[in-house]
Automatic annotation (TrEMBL), chains A, B:
Domain AMP-dependent ligase C-terminal: 323-417
Source lineage: Archaea, Methanobacteriati, Methanobacteriota, Stenosarchaea group, Methanomicrobia
CDD domains named in the record: PaaK (cd05913)
Domain annotation AMP-dependent synthetase/ligase: ranges: 69-274
Keywords: Ligase, Nucleotide-binding, Phosphopantetheine, Phosphoprotein
Protein name in the entry: Phenylacetate-coenzyme A ligase
One protein family per Pfam: AMP-binding
GO terms for biological process, alphabetical: phenylacetate catabolic process
Quaternary assembly: Monomer.
Biological pathway: Aromatic compound metabolism
Keyword Ligase: yes
Organism: Methanocella paludicola (strain DSM 17711 / JCM 13418 / NBRC 101707 / SANAE)
GO molecular function, one term: phenylacetate-CoA ligase activity
Stretches that traverse the bilayer: none
Amino acid sequence: MPRKELEELQSKRLRAVVKKVYENNAFYRKKLDDMGLKPGDIKGIEDIRKLPFTEKTDFKDNYPYGLLSVPRNEIVRMHASSGTTGKPTVVFYTKNDIKTWAKMFARCLEMAGVRKDDVFQVTPGYGLFTGGLGFHYGGEELGCMVIPMGPGDTKKQIDMMRDFGTTVLGGTVTYSLRLAEVCKEIGIDPKSLGLRVGIFGAEHWSNGMKDKIEGIFGFEAFDIYGMTEMFGPGIGLDCPRHEGIHIWEDHFIIEILDPKGEPCAEGERGEVVLTTLTKEGIPLLRYKTHDLSRMLGYCSCGRTHRIIDRVSGRTDDMVIVRGVNVFPGQIESVLMKYPQVGPEWYAYAYRNEFGSMDHLQVKVEATGTTKELLQIREPMIKELTSTLMGLKPELVFVPTGTLPRQEKKTKRLIDQRK
Amino acid sequence: MPRKELEELQSKRLRAVVKKVYENNAFYRKKLDDMGLKPGDIKGIEDIRKLPFTEKTDFKDNYPYGLLSVPRNEIVRMHASSGTTGKPTVVFYTKNDIKTWAKMFARCLEMAGVRKDDVFQVTPGYGLFTGGLGFHYGGEELGCMVIPMGPGDTKKQIDMMRDFGTTVLGGTVTYSLRLAEVCKEIGIDPKSLGLRVGIFGAEHWSNGMKDKIEGIFGFEAFDIYGMTEMFGPGIGLDCPRHEGIHIWEDHFIIEILDPKGEPCAEGERGEVVLTTLTKEGIPLLRYKTHDLSRMLGYCSCGRTHRIIDRVSGRTDDMVIVRGVNVFPGQIESVLMKYPQVGPEWYAYAYRNEFGSMDHLQVKVEATGTTKELLQIREPMIKELTSTLMGLKPELVFVPTGTLPRQEKKTKRLIDQRK
């Protein structure tokens, strides 16, 4: 779709969504009334900045049904995010929402080269979490064969891959690493599984990590973007050029904003803010995702959906050590350059025993002779220090297999000061 | 649909399915050729007995893709039964199969009085097991709101019920009993949850058990029938008259056969044998389900889909004690008549220490004074003995909460002699 046409479509849909939430949702009506805004004031995407933000806390404050913009009996499904504290973040879908999401996810699969002949093993959890059913409906919509495994039972997963000729693996990077380890335990080369495409989401991972797992499995890895509040996974993916994640701009308006809420220049890192254009159950205006990324403009593939950089962290994942904002993506991008280390690592922010000084310790699994490791040690610390604006971390090499493994999302940056 | 029209539809579909498997499946072509049968020999349902049987072992012998009747790339999903021994029983679905199954399940829900306004909590496991996704797609097809929980985390399930106003519970009887126990632990009356309809499958349960759980929750309970080889759950359900399970005869031809393969008279118990009429991925001719039931003719509701009795056991669930065939359903139907006992019970077949004599011990949870229990003891044993063709079991009352609980299917008849 030519860019001009796409933007006209966005404008048309934005007008409709503003009208819809104003007329059907008390929460948004009040927000707009408080600002003195009428739906007619929004003529198109150029007016997006007039609109109010939506915050994660608005979900909790309006629990359970306060964010609905359709009658409750139009809803056919709910999902919920893990909700580590208090009530989970709950979202609702109409029949059309389910179709829209499935089509959007199928578009991602298509872009990654997945076809009807493929066998797609779905390893994210089914149920309330959006991962499993998101991947599942996307695969069925595309028409490839879905193996609905869900997480865990890794040996059985490998049996299934071999028995049914799995070609596409969907899940988290963390889980692909777990698969690789179990392959090693039972003495098979992950490459022999014949996987062709890996589609990973729900975690922040670097290009170096991508190269590592592509090397382990011999597949092409893609980075899928999404979150519970925006359907779930599938709102964007990198294309085979791997220059950035295409966001499906016919379904969303994307902004990258600085902490003051002002737009970042192209290439400048900020918070991803999304407005839904086609969601019926819970349309959202300018939702502050807490994800950090930057606009990269247009991809050389020629698609008119713009690309953003791989998500480098979350505003709430960041830890501040001696005044420096530290994001997991910054550390990982350095570590993964070195073939001797990874892919498992953790970083710990801690305070010394007198409580007077903060430190950052980076622990990473490494293989190689002592001499080899000594050789890479100083350059690694130097590069980390430079990436972290002068904050010099401690670097600890530990043997492979000694760091904790998780089958779900791994939190790699741990603040031990609280 | 008038009965005559239904049978004409069955005949038309049967001709098509025989032609289809003959032309597209080497396993069936060989079977039919070996019998000297051509598709044209099957004119209608009156010729069903000319067709060969399909056995559970045919799935294992033709693993993985040998029972397919469409090209592999027409398949969009696989499911597998738990497969306690060796390779699991694996089945495959086309896009149309998924639609057919969802519509059939939605028809069950409709018959049970479920409507768009309802909130349907799905507790069977998602993933390879047909339970979760079967219930899930059925609910979405009907248009009620599905809460995709899957099994476990029972306290959270209860929170969800209260927060989102669940009105329909789908799962196993066993799991509903677990829910009731957790309600008791946290001090709430299961009736206060406001559940209106319970839809239970995958286990054999008696009318007495139905009365008990209806009494606990204050809902109306329905018995859903199905199995992995026939899509999954949803191929039949009892209607609000509760006279028997309506089998969807536009999708299946049902036979009840004796151990020699001869048709049983109406009312006579035998093995359920099913022929699929609308399945595309894996159509099956005369599949021997191992489930035991009997034809009950027509229901007073006026539907033309005939009814069968609640499944009383499986040919392979039965244990033979002193020459008597013992099925779980027989024992449960006696036990559940007594308000002092149940719903948890187990029966054990064992051999005495000299190996010369087989015994059946029935353990059931009971509440009441010693006097009360002494009063019901003898009549219960008498009735059990009569039901079991003269086999007199030992009867042991144990305190509530002492028998093992399972969150999945419960096997209540345990043979300890092997």
